[in-house]
Amino acid sequence: MKRIFHSIPFIAIGALLVFGLIGCDGKGFVLGPYPFEVDITEGVLSPEDFADRDNHGLLAGGVRMDYCNLPTEDMFNAHLGAVVGDLGSSVSVNEIRLKDITVTASEGDFRFANVIILRYIPAPQSGEFTLPVTLGTAFSPIGFGSTVELKPSGRVDLLRLIQAQDANPNDTCPQLEIFVLGTMPTDTITWRAEANVDLYVRAGL
Q1: pLDDT in tens, 3-51
Q2: What is the CATH number of domain 10-203?
Q3: Taking the CB of residue 117, how many other CB atoms lie within 10 A of it?
Q4: What is the rounded CA–CA span in Å between residue 69 and residue 107?
Q5: For the chain, what are the domain ranges?
Q6: What's the CA gap between 48 and 38, in Å, rounded?
Q7: Is the peptide bond before 174 cis (omega within 30 degrees of 0)?
């Protein structure tokens, strides 16, 4: 998993306290945003994946895949501790706010698609019903090329999704769903997805 963090030196925290550029909610101070990139996943889409959604050459349907490599909160906190050094024990990740997701095809392209929606399907929990989370949507009346930028319509906190999965007693993986409106693809597409997020951290001073 690729992560690009900005360090948070102690003197910078002191300056932010003086000038009031960080918020306090009674549980400590929240600092950020600190932008970074993270690999989401990669995969392959073939025309056969959409075969049962073929409506006379038109396509309206989704493909789901298991998403078992969701990062954990401990991974982020461990990396944060390495970045902030001595402050690692008093600083923790508070929010991972999704900005956008870029899907890049190394083979094939997305010219067949006019609308692409990426959804996160939480793993089922006993006695609970969880709704899918739309991670991003892209629209193009003429189709896409080898790169698609998906943007969320509202605020998406990836940390809450990670925490919910960590707390799930079941071993079932969550899923990602790629929903497409367009025409039937003719070529296989090899792709990878990366997310741009803003990291917010809580400092208990």
Answers
A1: 444 444 444 444 444 434 445 555 668 887 888 888 899 999 999 998 8
A2: 2.60.120
A3: 18
A4: 23
A5: 10-203
A6: 29
A7: no
